[in-house]
């Protein structure tokens, strides 16, 4: 039986804390695109040592939230059309498949999770204040919870983690381009229709999810002055 050394546990906890806080700040726009991530600056910002921060940066680089450029060190990825389309199309491949598996394996607890997350999303939209950063954080958390709930019954943990990473990378684009200003009635109706189709185990549900994922890309590309993706 292996026993972890307490010091190793502590180091791992600090590294996880650093990764979580860095990821949140990158997604939320606390670090603008292409910002250099210097250990000295990060240590002062988070009150953490170089070792857990270095480990956190390496982890986030593997997840796609940070770039490592040889001798230049770590930086925040730029915002580009190619990267956004990569994220979008990847989500459109893997997330509907996770949804199909969830609909095959999901039981009452999974259904209850979808209903509860939709109710929380509806409530958050009802108290909306897009000018408030605090509200945007709360809305994004509810929106993420809903999308997680849809695929929660998928029996493949690696697929779920990949879906989650792609979702969070897409969130960075939404936050940077401030797409929280939108047609809320239509947006809520889309989520309600998606939840209804999923709970009914409709064959149309994966296609509805695919279309929904594509909407954000079109909004962000429009704000970037780009044409929407073809196909």
From TrEMBL:
Question: Is the DNA-binding keyword given for this protein?
Answer: yes
Q: Which residues form the HTH gntR-type domain?
A: 12-79
Q: Which UniProt keywords apply?
A: DNA-binding, Transcription, Transcription regulation
Asked if Membrane is a keyword of the record, the answer is: no
SUPFAM superfamilies according to UniProt = GntR ligand-binding domain-like, Winged helix' DNA-binding domain
Q: Which residues form a coiled coil?
A: none
- SMART domains in the record: FCD, HTH_GNTR
Cited PANTHER family: HTH-TYPE TRANSCRIPTIONAL REPRESSOR GLAR, TRANSCRIPTIONAL REGULATOR, GNTR FAMILY
Q: What's the name of the protein?
A: GntR family transcriptional regulator
Which organism's genome codes for this protein?
Answer: Pararoseomonas baculiformis
- What lineage is on file? Bacteria, Pseudomonadati, Pseudomonadota, Alphaproteobacteria, Acetobacterales
């Amino acid at each position: 039986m292996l026993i972890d050394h307490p010091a190793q546990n502590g180091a791992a906890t600090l590294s996880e804390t650093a990764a979580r806080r860095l990821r949140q700040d990158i997604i939320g726009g606390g670090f603008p695109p292409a910002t250099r991530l210097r250990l000295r600056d990060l240590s002062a910002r988070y009150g953490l040592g170089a070792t857990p921060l270095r480990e956190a940066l390496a982890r986030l680089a593997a997840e796609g939230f940070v770039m490592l450029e040889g001798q230049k060190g770590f930086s925040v990825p730029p915002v580009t059309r190619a990267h956004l389309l990569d994220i979008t199309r990847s989500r459109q491949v893997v997330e509907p498949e996770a949804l199909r598996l969830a609909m095959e394996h999901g039981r009452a607890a999974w259904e209850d999770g979808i209903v509860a997350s939709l109710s929380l999303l509806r409530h958050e939209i009802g108290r909306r204040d897009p000018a408030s950063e605090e509200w945007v954080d709360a809305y994004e958390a509810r929106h993420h919870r809903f999308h997680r709930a849809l695929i929660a019954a998928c029996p493949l943990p690696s697929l779920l983690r990949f879906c989650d990473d792609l979702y969070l990378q897409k969130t960075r684009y939404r936050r940077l381009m401030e797409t929280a200003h939108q047609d809320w009635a239509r947006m809520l109706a889309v989520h309600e229709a998606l939840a209804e189709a999923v709970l009914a185990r409709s064959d149309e549900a994966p296609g509805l999810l695919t279309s929904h994922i594509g909407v954000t890309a079109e909004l962000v590309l429009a704000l970037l002055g780009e044409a929407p993706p073809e196909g």
